[in-house]
Amino acid sequence: MFSNNFFYEFVTLYVVLDPFAAIPIFLAATAGLPRRRQLAVAATAVAVAFAILLFFIVLGDRLLSALHVPIASFQLAGGLILLLFGLQMTLGKVTEAALALPAEAALMQRAIFPLAMPCIAGAGSIMTVILLTNNAERSVVEQAQTTGVLAACLVLLFTVLALSGGLSRLLGRGGLEIVTRVFGLILTSIAVNNLIVAIKLSFNLA
């Protein structure tokens, strides 16, 4: 039972985190930096994303309950944010923002936006960790296990970012732009599906 749960949660979280969608943004944010600084940016972005998602694992349900916000409404809002982010990726606006960073930009500035959030710790991943660690259904031990699965997924995501230099040399800037726009289209499709599901839940539609 545990192995099946672990596999399900691992696949779900890894797909939602979508490390390959982060590659072009990471490469744009770290363009011109030495290898050590690039790895530092990747590690910082992953650490910040983990902190954000851990906050929602621990307090997400309580926060929504305190604000009297149903899950469907939160999913609707998250879908809208994901839709806007996906459109920005499709139109090439996200990498433009990353490329516009000044050469003297600090490590945290490069790591947080748009890499750590909303690319890694975005609406989809926040919604997923809240649903997977639902306080009404999951014990503290199960929530801790899910947190461990999340940490493992983020370690793999860091590995993908660390190896992304080879992909950059293989595809070139034009190829990366194409990859970014394709992933943006995929994210936009996921966002539209989330919006449809949230609307159905909100209005009790079949």
List strands and helices in order, with pairings.
Elements: H1 2-17, H2 19-29, H3 35-66, H4 71-90, H5 93-99, H6 107-120, H7 123-132, H8 140-162, H9 164-202
Question: What's the total number of strands?
Answer: 0
Helix count equals: 9
Please tell me how large the radius of gyration is: 17 Å
Query: For this entry, what is the oligomeric state of its chains?
Result: single chain
In the residues, how many domains can be counted?
A: 1
Overall geometry comes to: globular
Low-confidence stretches: none
Give structural notes.
The protein is mostly helical and 206 residues long. It has one domain. The protein is 83% helix and 0% strand. Helix 1 packs antiparallel against helix 7, helix 2 runs antiparallel to helix 6 and helix 4 packs antiparallel against helix 7. The longest helix is centred in the C-terminal third of the chain and has 39 residues.
How would you concisely characterize the structure shown here?
With 206 residues, the protein is an all-alpha fold. 83% of the residues lie in helices and 0% in strands. It has one domain (2-202).
Q: Which properties best describe this structure?
A:
206 residues; globular
